């Protein structure tokens, strides 16, 4: 089964890029400098390079007006420009982590979920999309719960 993984658009975050730290605080955001290669950017779906600047901020990852409405902290690289958008390609930031996959129907209600090693994500995507009521899947890092990306049928 073909699937499409997308990162976030940089547009909702651009107004924060380059702001001084005291102004970021007003947006419940902080700037961090990657001191290793485990800072996953949610726009281009890649690990930040050591020394690269990111924003840690809260993001509405499930906006449906249901009990599953959700927000959580994510990282976005301040120089990220292009939204990750690939068919049948799993980015390393997903492939290398333990993931919580949550399938939602058109009404924004969870109808299936799996915990899976990123190396085994394709089989889990197929199992969740076997339910024809599954409209989309959200991937989250299982450890810290951070939103990782959206998966749709291609």
N-end to C-end Cα span: 8 Å
| Residue share in β-strands | 35-45%
Radius of gyration (Å):
15 Å
Number of domains: 1
Number of strands: 9
| Low-confidence parts | none
- Report the principal-axis shape: globular
Oligomer: single chain
Give the number of helices: 3
Structural class by SSE content: mainly beta
Q: Give, in spatial order, the strands making up the sheet with the most strands.
A: 5-1-9-8-6-7
Overall mean confidence score, pLDDT = 96
Largest sheet: 6 strands, antiparallel
Written as H for each helix and E for each strand, in order along the chain, the element string is EHEEEEHEEHEE
> Fraction of residues in helices?
10-25%
How would you portray this structure in words?
This protein has 154 residues and is mainly beta. It has one domain (3-153). The protein is 12% helix and 37% strand. It is built from three helices and nine strands; from the N terminus they run βαββββαββαββ. It is globular. It starts with a strand and ends with a strand. The relative contact order is 0.22.
Keywords, please?
globular, 9 strands, mainly beta, 37% strand, three-stranded antiparallel sheet, 154 residues, six-stranded antiparallel sheet
Give a nutshell description of this structure.
With 154 residues, the protein is mainly beta.
What is the element layout, followed by pairings?
Layout: E1 3-6, H1 21-25, E2 30-33, E3 53-62, E4 70-77, E5 85-87, H2 92-95, E6 98-104, E7 110-117, H3 121-129, E8 136-141, E9 147-153
Antiparallel strand pairs: 1-5, 1-9, 2-3, 3-4, 6-7, 6-8, 8-9
């Amino acid at each position: 089964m073909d699937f499409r993984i997308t990162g976030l658009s940089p547009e909702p975050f651009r107004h924060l890029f380059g702001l001084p730290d005291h102004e970021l605080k007003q947006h419940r955001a902080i700037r961090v400098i990657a001191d290793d290669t485990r800072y996953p950017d949610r726009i281009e779906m890649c690990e930040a390079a050591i020394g690269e600047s990111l924003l840690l901020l809260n993001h509405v990852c499930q906006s449906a007006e249901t009990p599953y409405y959700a927000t959580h902290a994510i990282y976005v690289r301040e120089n990220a420009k292009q939204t990750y958008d690939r068919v049948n390609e799993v980015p390393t930031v997903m492939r290398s982590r333990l993931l919580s996959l949550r399938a939602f129907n058109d009404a924004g209600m969870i109808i299936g979920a799996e915990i899976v090693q990123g190396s085994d994500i394709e089989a889990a995507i197929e199992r969740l999309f076997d339910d024809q009521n599954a409209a989309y899947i959200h991937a989250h890092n299982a450890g810290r719960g951070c939103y990782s990306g959206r998966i749709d049928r291609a």
